[in-house]
């Protein structure tokens, strides 16, 4: 890695450290600097070792357009209801449908991005700081060589040390729980979540070996 590359990564990382919590505008830029083609190839090869991941890269399924109001009419114990309820209460919108370029790296980025909020729900990770740390640790365990999620964990640990050391225990508990959960759970990458909207969330967690 060149000196200029290192400098760009450190600049991106420091920008995230300085940004207020909830400002994720710099994540995309840092991801492009960190996850080069070699790193992405390692992630793809790791995910392809599982039949579910192999099938996902071949078929490249996406969530498509999501009607939160329609999902909110499902029974309250279903994935669709719980997901839509969380999104509506937090004034969040599903990630817009993107066109996949004809390569695995493009699908990897789009699929991870559009399913991020679903992973929050399925892993029981809240959207507060410990919840984000828990999900980031889960992602590190599930995505193997992803440099971005390791960097996001590092950012949150540094911000805790600098600004909120009183929350260190809850942050470390969340990191430990997310990592352990991610190692024990079946792979989440490549699941066709839009076929599971009507299924009870607890049944989904049980099938994936996720205990929250």
From TrEMBL:
Domain of life: Bacteria
One GO BP: ubiquinone biosynthetic process
InterPro entries: Coq4
Pfam families linked: Coq4
Name this polypeptide is given: Ubiquinone biosynthesis protein
Species annotation: Planktothrix tepida PCC 9214
């Amino acid at each position: 890695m060149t000196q200029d590359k290192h400098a760009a990564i450190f600049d991106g990382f420091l920008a995230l450290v300085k940004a207020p919590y909830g400002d994720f505008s710099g994540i995309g830029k840092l991801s492009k600097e960190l996850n080069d083609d070699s790193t992405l190839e390692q992630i793809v090869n790791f995910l392809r070792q599982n039949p579910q991941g192999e099938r996902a890269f071949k078929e490249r399924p996406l969530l498509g357009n999501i009607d939160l109001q329609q999902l909110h009419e499902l029974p309250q114990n279903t994935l669709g209801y719980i997901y839509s309820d969380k999104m509506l209460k937090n004034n969040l919108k599903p990630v817009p449908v993107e066109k996949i370029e004809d390569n695995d790296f493009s699908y990897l980025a789009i699929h991870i991005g559009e399913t991020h909020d679903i992973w929050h729900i399925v892993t029981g990770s809240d959207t507060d700081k410990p919840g984000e740390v828990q999900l980031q640790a889960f992602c590190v365990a599930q995505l193997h060589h992803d440099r971005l999620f390791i960097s996001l964990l590092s950012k949150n640990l540094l911000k805790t040390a600098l600004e909120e050391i009183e929350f260190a225990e809850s942050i470390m508990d969340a990191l430990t729980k997310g990592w352990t959960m991610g190692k024990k759970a079946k792979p989440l990458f490549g699941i066709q979540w839009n076929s599971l909207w009507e299924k009870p969330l607890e049944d989904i967690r049980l099938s994936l070996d996720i205990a929250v």
